[in-house]
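Final paragraph of the annual report: two paired records, presented back to back.
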Amino acid sequence: MDNAWMLMHGAMRDAPKGLRKGTVRRVYEFAGPHRGKLAVFLLLTMISAVLAVSAPLLAGQVVNAIVGGGAVSTVVWLAVVIAGLAVLDAGLGLVERWQSSRIGEGLIYDLRRAVFGHVQRMPVAFFTRTRTGALVSRLNNDVIGAQRAFTSTLAGMVTNVIQLVLSVGVMLTLSWQVTVLALVLLPIFVLPARRMGRRMADLQRESAGLNASMTTQMTERFSAPGATLVKLFGHPRAELAEFAGRAARVRDIGIRSAMLTRWFMTSLSLVSALAQALVYGLGGYLAITGALAPGTVVALALLLTRLYTPLTALANVRVDIMTALVSFERVFEVLDLPPMITERKNPVAVPAGGVSVEFDDVRFAYPPAEKVSLASLEDVAVLDKRGGDEVLHGVSFRAAPGEMVALVGSSGAGKSTMASLVPRLYDVDGGAVRLSDVDVRDLSFDALRDTVGVVTQDGHLFHDSIRANLLYPRPSATEEELWEAVTRARLADLVHSLPDGLDTVVGERGYRLSGGERQRLTIARLLLAQPQVVILDEATAHLDSESEVAVQEALADALTDRTAIVIAHRLSTIRAANQILVVEAGKIVERGTHDTLLAAGGRYADLYRTQFANQSTAAA
């Protein structure tokens, strides 16, 4: 196994320009769990190579027996042996294919699992910058391309090397003159391969990037909101032209790659045919003069195919290795991007009882692109240099267990940023966010998910049933608990009216439901999760007046004895808050109750007159 890997390492030594160092070593390490299977697979390929060289020798003995007037039984037995070897080789081929499939599919599983698991640990900032199609391409195209290095390239290289060595050795024992003549053309196989590998690797890298771009464009334009945007404001002809341009380049690369490969293989096949003609010429002359037996000439001619066929494959193996190496590099590129938010080795638990929320001199800046993203995943030449500017400046407040704190302020003031720090979607740069006096960075991710529940303005739903979306945060919930959550969210009548009830599929992002229905379903999901801390990021912004009244009643019930951080846009929510924080430019500029802040005549009074006064009139 190690010797075979050294052969592969040698073939990779002259890697294409721009390939990161250490890729080959990492491929070897990644193959660790499959080394036993690979060893068995390579052993089978070695046996197949020996059988491939044995057949020409037996064929030569048959010819000698026929020409020399040998016994009929000798010819028959030789034919039986040849047939037996053919059957054995066919059986080995089936076993090899089975073993190859196990290795290949296992490697695909390992790579996909590693990439998917790693991507799940990435912060939200990673997903706000990364093209979805690029990630999908890494999990599909590049993983399969990397897998070929083991199931096809490595096994083929070992088989061909063994067959080549055995063929040369046997040919030398039969006739060194013919063998030397056959090897004279060997440099023609080696020299083109060195250039071909680099050119093919560059083409493969460009093709992979273009395929990722096409996947991204399709993913975005074929989603419900993307398709709606294109219908309303898009330019279909321009969209088609952009897609067609990338597809045309992929087509051109495919044609060029195919022609380069075909030209290369045709040239090598022509050289092989010329060498065979030389063998027949010199071998025939030696046979006529009595220096060689006729059967030996036939054996040499057949062995020549066992010589040049491996040479042709080995000359092309560099192209295959470079192609696979590019795929491995693209997969490792994702795995090498470290998650910014990690779990402590020994996390602590949230203390029992009611949970308080505290911001202690919190300072925060959104991370720059270089810390959370890759240029290749954003389809840009150079990552955006912006970022790192502080957006929260020394924010401090405390929400006691069971209290509701309302955040108000103009758009972009930092309210949603503050809300995202509690469930640790981002980590603070200074100060601390605490739950019951425990820094959220000291808690496990599971503890955070169990303690903090969030309903955003555009609550997301998966393309799945209502039941599956509700059970996502709490799979163990009973049927009674499901219906209780649905009822409290004022969705029971809707669900009963649907043909499949709770098993009705909501569509991608829940677009088969109205905006109000979709939002009430996300609130029902929150009610089922039963967190101790609830964060509402303008959760009722998309609801009509009737729906809002129903949901507000459900939320009032759900928030009882729970700590709540509410980004408020409704006066009714603000008046119910124990404390109102007025946020401007990343700072808390005012705090207090509705009446005290209104009496103070400051920034809150201005917001009340511009944003909330009309709600008071409408309510009256």
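The closing record of the year follows.
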Amino acid sequence: MTSKPPSIEHHLTALTQEPVEAELNLHKLWLSVWLRKWPILAFMLVASLLAILATTWMTPLYRAGATLLVQSDVAKLLAIEQADSNEALNSDYLQTEIELLKSRVLAERVVRQLDLVNHPEFAEAQQPTSEVLSNLAHRFSQLFNSVLEPAKPDGQAQKRFDKATEKLMAAITVNPRGKSQVVAVEVLLADPYAAMLAANALVDGYIAGKFEASVATSATATVWMDRRLDELRQKLQESENRLQAYRESEGLVDLQGIATITATELTLTSDRLINARRQRAEAESQYRQVELMKTSGLDGLASVPAVLSDPVIQQFKATKAQAAARVDEVSQRYGPGHPELIAAKAELDAATASLKTQVDQVVAGIERNYQLTMANEESQQAQFDSNKHQIQDLSSKEFRVRELALEVEANRALYDTFLVRLKETVATADQNNVNVEMVDRAMVPEQPVKPNKPLIVAVVALMALFLGAGTGVVKDVLNDTFSTTEAIEKKLNIPVLGIVPLVPKAQREQLAHMYSEDTDRLFTETIRTIRTKLEMANTDHHRQVIVVTSALPGEGKSVLSANLAHALANMGKVLLIDADLRKPTLAKNFALPEDRLGVTDIVEDRASLESCITTINGVDMVGAGTAVRDPLSLLASSQFTLMIEELKTRYDRIVVDSPPTQGVSDVMVLAAQADTLVFVVRSEVTPIIEVERGIAQLEQNATAVDWVILNQVDIRKAERQGYRYSSYYDYNQYGGIAAS
């Protein structure tokens, strides 16, 4: 196939569509929402009505709250610790007290005090219809438990009490007020009066519990501390006696001075030993590298880091490199016997010998250094072992004395602490240690706090709005089809021949006759425009065979082939061939006999060409013919090629309705016969991946797609989305057409 000049392709692409200015992605997202505004608003309205209906069925809840001041532990009059604690301790203490206010023990105390088990809101609801079954189940459970374990008294009452306690705990919220030490205790119940009583009872019970715990602690602290103080005094005396007895038995007076001198000497020896080991390790590493590279010759030894770091070695290596470069330079200019080349090689040999001599000296120095470091390490190790042996005897005695002395000091410090604390406790036994006080008592709430009907309805409406809008946006984002010519040209890099508008359902039964009968002026103009572009591209008048295909069945290629053939018939002699031998449609679209002879009969010499041609509205047509078992072999035969060549001598244009690319390879054979290959894509239906796969299959067979036609385009919808096709026409208010 011949290629179109770039200037013509650019001109035809410009005629297909006038690209609008690039729009922001936000604008496209807004269009996705705007096109679905009425369904979104309807969904939001329904959700709001359901929210209003649901809030009317909710039980109103009232919140009653009391506040109290929770201070940190007040410093005692003779306290050992400081009177003020840091901020972190205050925060931890406040959080602990909040957890105590929410504890189950305090909730059970309130349930008993207010008799909430019998309150209607806390009582266990019993269904009248299930009362008999419940009693039977309860009796059976009692009988079963009596066999396995002893019966628990009043199990049902305990169960109701536990449920009332759990319900009260779920209704309690305790939160600090900002960064202060004021805590708000709130109870949320359907009965406002019960909420007030419960909140006040919680605070009163908490304060009473704190006071009772403080009194009990003060009463028992003195007795316990007296007993503990006697035990500590006895332990202190015993530890002192053990220390004195050990010193006398060992004859120890002062070990500190001797031990200090010996330890200092041992420390210095240890440092010297560590330094000797480090030096030996470094020397050994260099020695091993040199030994490893001795077999590699001069170049291997010179590459060892310890050798390479020597400045003289670096200088000799540089001299050798210059000499080698000089030899390479001279050898390129002169022959082997030239004096300059001989001099350059002599200079290279001298540099190599000097380098070898210096490398040998450095290697010998590395070996000597390694032997010296080994000897130094052995000397330091022997001295260290001697010092360690001297100090071991003193250390064992010193450790024992220190152990006994530490025991004495610990027992004395513990005894002194308990003695001071005992005096402090006795002096402050009558001091009030309760550091919690009521700030505001709870009052009966007048207005319910739940449900917040306006807020619920607003949130539901907003969520419905975002859900509807998000659904529309996601639907457009996940759309994997072509809807505009701009997207096709950008994605496929193939020019668009034109678009075909979406035809109303009432006219779809006569799609193949729409151009010849002129039943839809807009459809007729679009087909005529496509024909004009094809003629403009056919400047050499040698592009006779037009093969029309698509990716999938049902894309409208057969209808488009028929109408395009009728449009081309106005400008010359045209033949329409139904080459879809597996699922032919030409006979059905034009009411031809099903047993009408066609392509297969011509190729297999069962009929002549003239007997298979049918002329309708000025267009010669050849159907698929008799069904065959292997359509691909027939289309690939030389007889089919001869038939096409014969038809080229008789007709100006030959339009071939080809099978789709998916599933069969017939189109690959037909594309080889084509002068122009047109690929039909159904707007917003054909998946992009199928189009790309079909075009890729054609390109793998060295057949390029010349044009793409976007079929069944919803023009009005495209215009609402911001796309405007200038080569097509809109109906005016008088029923005519006007160029847009």
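The CA atoms of residues 641 and 673 lie 7 Å apart. This concludes the annual technical report; the extension proposal builds directly on these records.
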